[in-house]
Design a protein that fits this description.
It is a single chain. The chain is an alpha/beta fold and about 325 residues long. It has a single domain, classed as TIM Barrel (Alpha-Beta Barrel), CATH 3.20.20.70. Helix content is about 30%, strand content about 15%. It has a 12-stranded mixed beta sheet. A hairpin with an 8-residue loop joins strand 11 and strand 12. Helix 1 packs across helix 10. The longest helix is centred in the first third of the chain and has 14 residues. Bound molecules: S-adenosylmethionine and iron/sulfur cluster.
Length: about 325
């Protein structure tokens, strides 16, 4: 079944956040004292998250990304993922993680049916990594990435590029793709609730591409229909590939194929719009048709494009950890 929005875009991708909690405090994502912890009863149970996933897949969603907060800190995440992977019609189950707990979990995640991992990696310098994440131990993340590779996962590495913070490492992080089969992706920094002068931190995707092109002979790669928003590039002779994600300057809105559901059950059509539908009342009814109707409303209300740009002064403040990136 095809799910198409009012702008003719096929919607086949759900980002499902399972928690707003995290074992890191990345500066670009949440305040140092964390986000106001949700009450246990506000967070959807696994049964409720599963019901949303089933309804979404029955409507035409083919890919689910489990995200957070940090999904691996939620208890019993592995059996939950195994349940998701067995939903008939779901073609791709993928997970985004900060990698801190990955070393001990990579094998069981693979057995649970997760098909790919995206791991955040903003620096290869221990002190800088610790400063960006306000406590993170780089060696644990690197061990997690290595374990994921050994477990047979295709691995994507995500670097949020921030001018004057970690942009001096773009080329070094890119070179991880020379010897490893990683897809290394560079994400433009997006405004969050804490940054007033966020524009000065944005390194436009074009500039990132220019810098990478000076160092590597990049060849553009075509997109497949379940792809995310990255523009992908191959480097002849390299084991992996590079990608650039430009939520601020790139306006990939025309190709946006996704909807989002937060861990409290708020469904949204766009990261940057304040709209959203609370799915909890529909879950309480226990009627899949009602849930599908609510999700259809989100798809119908998906804006054609967001208004954020590297020069615009205003944006709706939010903590990325609450929405799932
Ligand atoms: N904890 C997991 C992690 O860090 O990968 C998953 C959740 S995190 C909110 C999902 C993604 O959002 C990560 O790749 C993170 O780098 C990205 N992200 C968070 N805040 C961002 C920001 N202000 N700009 C760009 N990307 C951001
Ligand atoms: Fe946690 Fe991920 Fe946000 Fe960092 S980006 S604070 S790891 S949720």
């Amino acid at each position: 079944m095809n799910l198409v929005d009012l702008h003719g875009r096929k919607i086949n991708y759900l980002r499902l956040s399972v928690t707003d909690r995290c074992n890191l405090r990345c500066r670009y994502c949440m305040p140092g004292d964390g986000v106001g912890k949700l009450q246990h009863e506000d967070v959807l149970s696994y049964e409720e998250l599963h019901a949303i996933a089933r309804a979404a897949v029955s409507m035409g969603i083919e890919k689910i990304r489990v995200t957070g907060g940090e999904p691996l800190v939620r208890r019993d995440i592995v059996p939950f993922l195994a349940g998701l992977s067995s939903i008939p019609g779901l073609r791709q189950l993928v997970l985004t993680t900060n990698g801190v707990l990955l070393e001990g979990m990579a094998d069981e995640l693979r057995e649970a049916g997760v098909q790919r991992l995206n791991v955040s990696l903003d620096s290869l310098d221990s002190a800088r990594f610790c400063s960006i994440t306000r406590s993170g131990d780089l060696s644990r993340v690197l061990a997690g990435i290595a374990a994921a590779e050994r477990a047979g996962f295709p691995v994507k590495l995500n670097m949020v590029v921030m001018r004057g913070v970690n942009d001096q490492e773009i080329e070094e992080i890119a070179s991880l793709a020379m010897d490893h089969p990683y897809s290394v992706r560079f994400i433009e920094y997006m405004p969050s609730s804490m940054e007033e002068r966020w524009q000065s931190l944005v390194v436009p995707g074009e500039e990132i591409l220019e810098r990478l092109s000076r160092r590597f002979p990049l060849q553009p790669v075509g997109r497949n229909e379940l792809a995310g928003p990255a523009k992908e590039y191959r480097i002849p002779g390299a084991a992996g590939s590079l990608g650039i994600i430009t939520p601020v300057t790139g306006h990939f809105c025309g190709e946006c194929n996704r909807i989002r559901v937060t861990s409290t059950g708020l469904a949204r059509g766009c990261l940057f719009s304040g709209d959203g539908v609370d799915l909890k009342p529909f879950l309480a009814e226990g009627d899949q048709a009602l849930l599908e109707g609510a999700l259809r409303g989100i798809v119908a209300g998906k804006p054609g494009r967001h208004e954020l740009s590297a020069t615009s002064a205003n944006h709706t403040p939010f903590a990325m950890s609450a929405i799932g990136g």
